[in-house]
């Protein structure tokens, strides 16, 4: 059965067009200055305006304050906010209420000890993103191309839709889906030829591997 795909970290027209043509259900724009995939509000708005209904436009932010989110939400047509920092469950609830947009909360997983957080966030977010935990001292909290041990979440389910992320590639996607049972997946560096540079051939290959 095909899985739904989010292509994250899109920053130019060629990458966005490739993701849409290949059948991505979500496209993500990164609003985090330290990322090689960071876009400005102007860049994201210019890209998002051409995304047709049926493909969800997601803004990825990291511990963003209200002023930052106010500007993004006011100027970029969006369908979802992805919180990828240390936002608490209370902050997730606050962001949902303030903007009236679905919120997906990313949770980093490296060991069993990280699993209870998934339940806590599943109680307040519209979706959860089960990602590899960034290594200590890493400049980015995600987008590092690292996978976690998928056996940790094998057979686990939550009361909201969830996505698998972290180090996914066209080559390991089938195994990741088989091991975890994920019905939605999110990829960034695995479809790039260099950090921040999306590769149209790899995007197509990833969507092919997803059964699309
Ligand atoms: O992609 C980024 O640059 C990024 C920056 C800050 C937080 C999260 C980021 N990306 C997200 O990380 C996961 C996994 O990415 P990868 O496939 O391992 O490169 C994914 O959810 C991205 O949306």
Mean pLDDT, to the nearest integer, reads 97
Could you estimate the helical fraction of the residues in percent? 25-40%
Strand-residue fraction?
A: 15-25%
In spatial order, strands of the major sheet run 1-2-3-4-5-6-7-8
Structural class: alpha/beta
Strand segment tally: 10
* Relevant CATH superfamily: Aldolase class I
Bound molecules: ligand LGQLAAA5
Helical segment tally?
A: 7
Which outline best applies? globular
The rounded Rg comes to 16 Å
**CATH topology tier name:** TIM Barrel
Low-confidence segments, given as residue ranges, are: none
What is the architecture at the second tier of CATH?
Alpha-Beta Barrel
- Terminal CA distance: 9 Å
Total number of domains? 1
Give a short account of the largest sheet: 8 strands, parallel, barrel
User: What is the CATH first-level class name?
Assistant: Alpha Beta
Pathway: Amino-acid biosynthesis; L-tryptophan biosynthesis; L-tryptophan from chorismate: step 3/5
Catalytic activity: N-(5-phospho-beta-D-ribosyl)anthranilate = 1-(2-carboxyphenylamino)-1-deoxy-D-ribulose 5-phosphate
GO molecular function, one term: phosphoribosylanthranilate isomerase activity
EC number: 5.3.1.24
